[in-house]
Amino acid sequence: MLRGFYTAAAGMMANQRMQETLSNNMSNANTPGYKADQGTMRAFPELLIQQMGSKNIPTTSGFKIPDGGHVGSLNTGVYMQESIPSFKQGDLKETGIGTDLALVQNAVPDETGFLFFHVQDDGGEDRYTRNGNFTVDGEGFLTTNQGNYVLDENGDPVNTGGLEFAVTADGILSVENGQTFTLGLSYSPDAGDMVKEGNDLFRLSEEGAPLENARGNDAISFSIQQEHLERSNVDANRTMTEMMNTYRSFEMNQRVLKAYDQSMQKAVTEIGRVT
């Protein structure tokens, strides 16, 4: 009985984690460049149930030999193993704002590879983003909305001096005084190595392959569209359906848990009562 109790509880915990992931996706459905998380469910190891018994041998001494047989396997529950971002390209939205840049990935050497804007966090560490909703700070540097510097291909902050600048399709930024910058675009051979940090920032995992300069590989094709933003790749309708299914699954496990609880209560209060 207790095994079933814990199995139902494990299912509820997995459903809760999945619901949290889906809720976070839904809340970021309108966040530019956001990549939806996909939760993966895994089953705990199965147990093999075997019948144990003995067989009587027709002898004068009543000799017995062990006898058993396979009953079958028993699943011990489910858990949410991990949450993996989906790096599918989002649709473009025209904003008419000059500091908005959309990075469009046309072709990469491998289907698992992905392109990012190269930025710098508050601690001076390299970070990467797909959210091109940029702005210009008081010192004239191009930054994200959280104040992270946007870097050029040499890893230096881009100083536009103001809001008036132009960006070509291949990522060359030109300001009014004629100065030009080549925006830093990084390519990850395996986007699965990228870890979300919040505020639309990604970092490279400790086991991940180092990112490459996107312009150093002829097999990479991209374009940058100024006055556009990449939308979130969250499918709102599908996410709502998955949230409803997860909630129903949670309710079913909850009913099973309640039934086990009532059975245990009856066993404690009624079975074996001395009358």
Automatic annotation (TrEMBL):
Subcellular localization: Bacterial flagellum basal body
Membrane spanning stretches: none
Domain of life: Bacteria
Domain Flagellar basal-body/hook protein C-terminal: 225-268
Biological processes per GO annotation: bacterial-type flagellum-dependent swarming motility
InterPro entries per record: Flag_bb_rod_N, Flagellar_basal_body_rod_CS, Flagellar_FlgE/F/G, Flg_bb/hook_C_dom, FlgE/F/G-like, LlgE_F_G-like_D1
Domain Flagellar basal body rod protein N-terminal per the UniProt entry, residue ranges: 5-35
UniProt keywords, alphabetically: Bacterial flagellum, Cell projection, Cilium, Flagellum
Domain named Flagellar hook protein FlgE/F/G-like D1: residues: 116-174
Short name of one Pfam family: LlgE_F_G_D1
Annotated Gene Ontology cellular component terms: bacterial-type flagellum basal body
Main location, first listed in the record: other
Protein family: Belongs to the flagella basal body rod proteins family.
Name this polypeptide is given: Flagellar basal-body rod protein FlgG
Provenance organism: Halobacillus dabanensis
Taxonomic lineage of the native organism: Bacteria, Bacillati, Bacillota, Bacilli, Bacillales
